[in-house]
Every structure is written in C-alpha cells, then in structure tokens.
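User: Um, any thoughts?
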Amino acid sequence: MAAQPPFTIEQFYKFMNEGRLMAGRCLNCGKIHLPPRPLCDRCLSKDFEWTSLPNLGKLMAYTIIHVAPVQFQASAPYLIGVVRLDNGLKIPGMIRNASSEQIKIGMSLSMILEPCSSTLRWPQWPRYYFKPHEILASSQSA
C-alpha cells in the first residue's frame, strides 16, 4: 500500500496547486480538518487520511470590505463570505463575479482554485475564491 502524503500545510497547498481541495479526515472519529493537522483536536488521534472536498456550497454569511489591506485595495469594495460546503464543512473566502445586489444568504456558490504563479519553489500560495454557481454554469454554456 502506498504511503499517504504528509498531513502538512505544505502538502495541502501542493494539492491546491494541482486543483484539488483536500482535507485530513481522522480515521478514529471522522472529523475533517481544514487545514490539515497531525493531531485530531476532537479525539487526539494521529491516524488520518486525505479526503477530497466538494467545490459546491451554500452562502451562510457575508460582508462587504470597503477598507482593504494594501494587497487588496485595488479590489475594494469586495465580498467575503462563509460557505458551507456540501459535506458540511464551513470555509471563508472571497466572492467574485457578483455584486452586493446579487448576493443572497443560502445561494449556491462554486469554489474556484487558482494555481500559484510564483516562480519560488516554496512557499507557493495558491488561492481560491467563490462565485455564484448560476453565473459559473451560464458562463460555461455560452
């Protein structure tokens, strides 16, 4: 049996750079950890497996950022939301391709992963964001 890749933040970002959102699932109690960690905070087990996470979810909460940090000032104002993925895990992220008038609690969102464009070996910081699922579906059929 092949060895599991290590449950480190570096491996998490490597998966993201490959276009896969992965988390550590505790083999003892089943809790999903994102980001992954070497010790379960529920049962203290060290036995994990990598598990793929869905890229669809529902918007639970959001806010509009008007005063942004330096690296995001060109994007302000922008939306940040908390999305409950289809497996129940909650994750925060930027919401793109939607105005504040279009955004609604409970709407379906798709996660988009962007590979890192850095030429450095490590650290590489791929990014993700959410966009309304309806906009994603209609833009792909056009």
Remarks:
- The first strand starts at residue 22 and ends at 26.
- Residues 9-52 form one domain.
- Residues 135-142 have pLDDT under 50 and may be disordered.
